[in-house]
Write a structure and sequence with these properties.
Blueprint: H1 2-19, H2 55-64, H3 69-82, H4 87-103, H5 113-128, H6 132-149, H7 158-174
Helix pairs in contact: 2-3, 2-5, 3-5, 4-5, 5-6, 6-7
């Protein structure tokens, strides 16, 4: 019985609340939208020129900063990983590292940061984008540069000499 009285009171109060007219809704006026015709000629946008710094400029910047040699190398690693080489890059870099090795002076300027970082970069790009004997040569060249530049190996160490033996074999196969 209590439920019935409570339900009736609830229905009555909801019914009265629904019938009240305290709040009047007024419709918003309809705004006319004026159609604007586009009389412009469809012109092509000029190409967006990306502000990319060349790999050589980035290496030059790394070489001249005040960072330690190992920090310069770690920054170079990031550049090496992100760089997208063209076939022309790979061919040019291949010739550069082979010429540098054949000169016999490829490990002669360990304090010349720009030269060392450039050759480390080039050898990595060649190794990453080549197969077979050229890849092997570039890998050994890269290892020797990387470890001597960072001071891990001496230029006359056994590991450097072993890599040079491998590079000589690779060059003979490439001829």
């Amino acid at each position: 019985m209590k439920k019935l009285i409570f339900s009736a009171a609830l229905v009555l109060s909801l019914g009265l609340a629904g019938c009240s007219e305290d709040k009047k809704e007024t419709p918003e006026p309809i705004k006319e939208v004026e159609k604007v015709e586009d009389n412009t000629i469809n012109k092509e946008e000029p190409p967006i020129v990306e502000n990319k710094i060349s790999w050589a400029e980035q290496i030059s910047s790394l070489a001249t900063n005040e960072d330690a040699t190992s920090d310069k190398f770690y920054a170079l690693e990031k550049l090496m990983m992100e760089y997208e080489a063209t076939a022309e890059d790979v061919e040019q870099f291949k010739n550069d590292i082979i010429d540098d090795y054949n000169s016999g002076t490829y490990l002669s300027e360990l304090e010349n940061h720009e030269r060392m970082l450039t050759n480390i970069f080039k050898s990595y790009i060649v190794e990453r984008n080549s197969d077979g004997t050229l890849k092997d040569f570039a890998f050994d060249y890269h290892q020797n540069l990387k470890y001597t530049y960072r001071g891990v190996d001496a230029t006359d160490s056994d590991s450097v000499k072993a890599n040079e033996d491998q590079m000589n074999k690779s060059l003979n196969e490439l001829k």
